[in-house]
Amino acid sequence: MKFKILLLSAILGSQLAMAQQNVQCGSHVYLKNLDKQQPGFENYVNNLAQHNASNSNKTRASVVYIPVVVHIVYKNATENLTDDYVNAQIDMLNRSFARTNSDTTNMRSVFNPIVGKGNIQFVLDQIKRVPTTNTQFIFDFLWNGYNTADDVKQTSSGGSDAVMPNKKMNLWVCDLGIPGGQGELLGYAYPPGGLPNWPGGSAFPSEALDGVVIDYMVFGGSPTKNPKGFASYGARGKTTVHEVGHYLGLRHIWADDNGTCLQDDGISDTPKAEDASPANCDKNINSCVDTGTDYPDMVENYMDYSLETCQNSFTKGQVSLMEGVLANQRIQIRVPVGVENYSIANNVSVYPNPASDQLNISIYNIDYKIAFVSLKNSLGQEVFNSQISSANLSTQISTSTLAKGVYFLTIKLDNNKGYHQQKISIQ
User: Fold this and answer.
1) In whole angstroms, what is the distance from residue 410 CA to residue 420 CA?
2) Are 281 and 308 in contact (CB under 8 A)?
3) Which residues contact 35 (CB under 8 A, 6 or more apart)?
4) Are 197 and 222 spatial neighbours (Cβ–Cβ below 8 Å)?
């Protein structure tokens, strides 16, 4: 869980009185507090790697597509991130997990034998926009042992209820914080649940709270939209990559062991590290001696606290664990079997673009009954919605009364056979 911690030790230590301290990831702190409520939970998470290795018969080589429900919980226009931020973040996730991101060229050659590409991709299922009166969702485990950040996951508490969390990855975007004006929490996530070595009768954490939470200022990613804040930290949308890593079972590469080399993250090929990187990109550190090849600290790893401008890869072992989780503990989190062509870009014709008076939409060469069409402005407000039946195959949107600017078109098929999203310019 990634509060983006510019140094957890600094927050707890002498610099606590400074005006703004940013906690990168709250996941490991959250984990320890969950363990107090459900004894054995932390041990369960720590044993994920061994458990999934023993269930290798369930692993798979084909790509798993994870449907993502994004909840934008906002109290003002600044926090109500537009669709292009969401699309940019999904793109960042896909490139990062498949290791097709251009910055992999910055990886030091010593790590080339261990970096991995994942058979994991993410598909935007829906965006929910929920206004709130909550000033901030506060993560207070570090100070007082309680947490109101999970309120963002509950409509009754000013947030947004999860959508089918047993089948879809829910991702909440909101204004996170830590108490007393001490800084910003940038994100956290629940690790997967449901291992057979849980204590009998376990019912924690609640499925309704399962998912990822990201501060709105670090949500997004190049090339479409960069995050809104933390420029000095080098935010690039990789906070979400880190937190999704936790959601899929990964631990921090230094194993949260309070500055020693005695523990590791349970994955054999991630180099040991004494502690988190202090929000830098120092490639000269080798804080622990590794068995076999003695690697330097892997500041390029998404599960470190290094600068996002430095992070660019997972290891093969990390990829294997996440794929194992998707084949075991989170086996239902995926686009349904039979959805061979989830993106229907090749079956959609939208013209003219830019448009002035009318936008024409046609769908062809694909099986469906009803297609749902939505057009939203740059503020996320829906200005048009309609349906296309398989009998008609097309529809038109009158754009003559719409304000000039950028809009976002979404088409979803009723039988979950596919979706299409496209930026539209109205002139």
Assistant:
1) 6
2) no
3) 41, 42, 43
4) no
pLDDT-based confidence at residue 12 (cuts at 50, 70, 90): very low
Catalytic positions: 243
Residues 6 or more apart from 167 whose CB is under 8 A from it?
Answer: 67, 332, 333, 334
Residue 9 is predicted with a pLDDT of 22
d(CA 205, CA 195): 13
| Mean pLDDT for the stretch of residues 330-351 | 75
209 versus 235: the higher-pLDDT residue is: 209
Residue 273 three-state SS: coil
Whole-prediction pTM value? 0.71
Instruction: Look at the block and give the residue holding tokens 């007082």.
Output: 144
Mean pLDDT score of the chain: 78
Number of C-beta neighbours around residue 111 at 10 A: 17
Least confident of 11-20, 102-111, 281-290: 11-20
Decide the pairing of beta strands 23-25 and 2-5: antiparallel
List of domains in the chain: 2-327 (3.40.390.10), 345-426 (2.60.40.3080)
SS3 of 361, please?
Answer: strand
CA gap 324, 56 in Å, rounded: 7
Classify burial at 1, counting beta carbons within 10 Å of its beta carbon; exposed 0-12, middle 13-18, buried 19 or more: buried
CA angle 403, 377, 349 (to 5 degrees): 95
Pick 154 or 147 by higher pLDDT. 154
Given phi > 0 = left and psi -120 to 50 = alpha, else beta, which region is 99? left
403 DSSP assignment: P
Residue 203 pLDDT > 90: no
Please, which residues have CB within 8 angstroms of residue 406's CB and are 6 or more apart in sequence?
84, 377, 378, 423, 424, 425, 426
Q: What does the alpha-carbon distance between residue 302 and residue 360 come to, in Å, rounded to a whole number?
A: 42
pLDDT in tens, 377-421: 877 788 988 888 776 677 888 888 999 988 888 888 876 667 788
Question: Which amino acid type is present at position 373?
Answer: V
Measured from the Cβ of residue 393, the count of other Cβ atoms closer than 10 Å reads: 13
Q: Do 120 and 97 meet the contact criterion of CB atoms below 8 Å apart?
A: yes
